[in-house]
Amino acid sequence: MTNITMVTWKISPKSGGQCTLAYLNATKIERINCSDRINWRSKPKWDQALEIQQVEMADEGNYTCEMVNADGNFHHHYHLTVLASPRMALYCDDHGNPVCEAETVKPAAEIWWVPESDSTPRADSHDNGTVTVVSRFTAHSTSGKNPTCIVSHATLNETKSIACFPSHRHLVLFISIILGFLIIITFAAAIYYLKLHGYRFCHKTKPPDIIPTQSSQDDTVEVEPYTTYVQKENVIYNSVSDLTLRQNLPQGRSPAT
User: Fold this and answer.
1) What counts of helices (H) and strands (E) characterise the chain?
2) Burial grade of 238 (CB within 10 A; 0-12, 13-18, 19 or more)
């Protein structure tokens, strides 16, 4: 369009107040409540395009361009939608399962697995307007192939693969359980063995009871102490014979040697 006498951009973002950027007959340029990131791309006399540097989510909204020349007034309306590429993350969880995440603004990203997973992706919305989609790979078999995560979005398609193994923490726990179980079995077997054979090691033979022969008050009885072990039984019986012999002899005589 030529012979433009006035150009005005009116911006109504989703957040914040309205911004007005105007060019008036090559003599005056007005800026009302506009960010420094928003400006003319070139000289508005020849180029009426608007330029936004470092686009942010807050820049989303309605943009209206009004132009005036000798032919009349012209209006062009635009709606700006800001799309950001998702940030993809692929890692192994504590159980050795692959986990794929994609964080972006709306619309949320979509996640697929190759081979196909049994799990359903979960979408978490945040206060800053972003959405994080999380998917955990739970297929029963991978046929020897590493799981591949595919993230699909309006701004890109990205794929990543990963190989996960059981965590060392769970392996140590499993080994500890097995060792503990073996120790318990060994301890129980030792107790059973001692109960079954321990009597032979701990039992002592009870010595035979000795009933002394009735004697007069003047008789002197000397009994050698006897041992409690079985191998000393002969000594006990010899002592009893001596005792009986001493009782039958007249007083004043001693047994012949």
Assistant:
1) 2, 14
2) exposed
Q: In the beta sheet, which residues pair with residue 50?
A: 40
User: What tokens were used for 109?
Assistant: 């990203």
By the 8 A CB rule, do 155 and 83 touch?
Answer: yes
Q: Which two tokens stand for residue 24?
A: 């008036």
> Residue 204 burial by CB count (10 A; 0-12/13-18/19+): exposed, middle or buried?
exposed
CB proximity list for 26: less than 8 A, separation 6 or greater:
45
**pTM for the full model?**
0.51
Asked if the bond preceding 250 is cis, omega within 30° of 0, the reply is: no
pLDDT at residue 94, rounded to an integer? 86
Q: Distance between CA atoms of 79 and 66, rounded to whole angstroms?
A: 15
Q: Supply angle C-alpha 245, 247, 252, rounded to 5.
A: 95
Distance CA 138, CA 120 (A): 10
